[in-house]
């Protein structure tokens, strides 16, 4: 390529925003997870005391102005305010199994007898929930906190480190100097525009339908619009390629074809069919960025909060 980075900004001179340095999992997140797990393992239990909101109540109609309701089972869910059942839901509150009460359900006046009430009960967040979860080595809430950190801390640190690398790369791309071959840039963007056009059509989205107005775009117009959206990616691509060259990291045609063969086999395509959906340039862009982010993540981790 003729286009290239000519003067690279030194990202190490940047002050990293404090929010990007944070990665530690707050206790509130783990407590929320425990409450969510308790809810997942809740069970319906018979209500022995007075019925309250959120209970599920099974009643029988013992008297009604509409004879068709006589003897029928009526289910009430107090607190949900289902249309037509609001008055009955309110009337059942405070009742117990075996109690009778009068209410209005829809347009009918009736007397209902409470047969059964169930209440959603969550296990206590403590040894009971730990026993249900059955996580090896986790018997107490403190054990769960420790286990949660073991499971998630490495990923959170890496994600935060990638956030710092992303900040470095954005600022470097914005502040560095480039030589841009405009025709080369246009072809680079058009390639991605064509690929995106086909991908959107295959996914059931027609990019020829305009966001505003009623005039349907031609294929070429839609591709041109998609290509313009790719322009902000060109300079970062040149930056990633520059940094990879400094690292002596290369993405070869042979490597690309081998990966493409494997992808084609998995998707039941021939190599030629797979080539229609991809390009070496796209693969290079992905691998260059991946290499840079992983290469700099160790340096970025040193900037994370201790």
Mean pLDDT: 94
Radius of gyration: 32 Å
Number of strands: 7
Quote the beta fraction.
Answer: 5-15%
Secondary-structure element order, as H and E? EHHEEEHEEHHEHHHHHH
Query: Sheet with the most strands?
Result: 5 strands, antiparallel
Low-pLDDT ranges: none
Q: Give the overall shape.
A: elongated
User: What kind of assembly state do the chains in view correspond to?
Assistant: single chain
The N- to C-terminal Cα distance equals 43 Å
Structural class: alpha+beta
Assign a percent range to the helix content: 40-55%
Number of H/I helices: 11
What is this structure's SSE topology?
Layout: E1 4-7, H1 18-21, H2 27-40, E2 43-46, E3 56-64, E4 73-76, H3 86-92, E5 100-105, E6 108-121, H4 127-133, H5 141-175, E7 177-179, H6 182-202, H7 219-230, H8 234-246, H9 253-267, H10 271-275, H11 280-301
Helix pairs in contact: 5-11, 6-7, 8-11
Describe the structure.
This protein starts with a strand and ends in a 5-residue tail after the last helix. It has helices at residues 18-21, 27-40, 86-92, 127-133, 141-175, 182-202, 219-230, 234-246, 253-267, 271-275, 280-301; strands spanning 4-7, 43-46, 56-64, 73-76, 100-105, 108-121, 177-179. It has 306 residues and is an alpha+beta fold. It has 11 helices and 7 strands.
